[in-house]
Amino acid sequence: MSSYLGTLILDFMSTDFKADSEIAIALLSQLKDECGFDQSLEAFAILDPVQSAGWIFSKLFVAGQFIEKLYDSNTEEIDKSKGKKFSDKFVYWLSFKLKERGCRAQIKLSA
Do the beta carbons of residue 89 and residue 82 sit within 8 Å? Predict the structure, then answer.
């Protein structure tokens, strides 16, 4: 992983945005507490959604400093995740954590 990682922008796609976004916010808030991230700093944000063809689309922003703290606390799990690049491994790991909590949203790196 690089010594400085920029904010990751993820596509957050759901058919039940309210429930899935609540799960994502709860998980990321818990992880923020667990990894000791500075509570005065913004670690993540989910934009207002847009609906199209039965899906609800949004963007999830995850701050680079928060990702670095998460990596420090979850190095082994993230390193073992699928993907060639660090960002792919992180997104796969986060997606798995969300699914463990019952979140049915799909996330991927935004193009």
Answer: yes
